[in-house]
Amino acid sequence: MGEQPELPVTPPSVDWWMTSLCNLTCDYCWGPVPSKDDRSLRSVIAESILASRTPAVTFCGGEPLVVGDDVWTYSRAFREAGKKTILNTNGELLESSLDRDPQRAITDHFDVVGISVDAVDPDVHRDMRGKRATLARAMKAISLVRDSGVQLKIATVVSNVNKDHIADMARVVNETIQPSVWRLYQYSSRGEYNRGVDRHRLDTEEFVAVTEEAKRIAGNVNVAASESATASCFIVSQEAKILLPVGDDYEVLGDVRHDSIDSLWRQDPLAPEVVAYKTWLQRV
Ligand code: SF4
């Protein structure tokens, strides 16, 4: 057996659940259960990330753009500290969030913006992401990111509901969207707020078949597919906890109010999986 590569001294990215709130109601959400966020914790969490050697911060949640100006303030601070910043958003609020401040430019805040699109058929996209989801707004967000010159990631959850529409989407990804990376995630039943297990469940064999076909159709587009069993992130929650994805749930590894992120990373039993899961980030 070959030697395992040495682990980095810090997570390749800290995934910051900025908020538990979201403007959409996807029934496959593996994020936090919506509740009243303690906003005062955001500055503590941001300081903890700034003090760590992590090279990248991913803003997620919940929907990071529902928190008003905070996501723009902290992303700027991380950029100025030399960290790469990634925004993961459903895209619906990007245009209005930019319009709130005419000085705001995506390029000043983010290196990569990930937009969630689960199908290029508006009805299927809505069937995946709830009745408030509008494909047109997500596509508008895509064009704003493309026009800005910031790298674009398209994020697609593949489940039993949309599996037959992924090939059509691969054609549009190849011919029109041309993102820097297309991430395909196998539906995962993880998370307390994840209510759609029965209709979304998709076995790994089928996921692999769907994603292999998508890769073939997507041509030169960089496609990175992750099976739910191997999906792992280094998450700091809106409650300042470091969360370990374990089975269908999350366990608490520590609290960034008491321990440094880099010391908690050294205790993370899933660190090798996190490194593997974030490999795509080095390619954008
Ligand atoms: S999956 Fe994302 S967009 Fe959907 S409800 Fe959860 S946080 Fe919101």
From TrEMBL:
GO molecular function, one term: iron-sulfur cluster binding
UniProt KW Metal-binding keyword: yes
InterPro entries: Aldolase_TIM, Radical_SAM_PqqE_MftC-like, rSAM, rSAM_sf
Keyword Hydrolase among UniProt keywords: no
One Pfam family hit: Radical_SAM
UniProt cross-references to CDD domains, sorted A to Z: Radical_SAM (cd01335)
Keywords: Iron, Iron-sulfur, Metal-binding, S-adenosyl-L-methionine
Name of protein: 4Fe-4S single cluster domain-containing protein
Protein's organism: Lentzea xinjiangensis
Lineage start: Bacteria, Bacillati, Actinomycetota, Actinomycetes, Pseudonocardiales
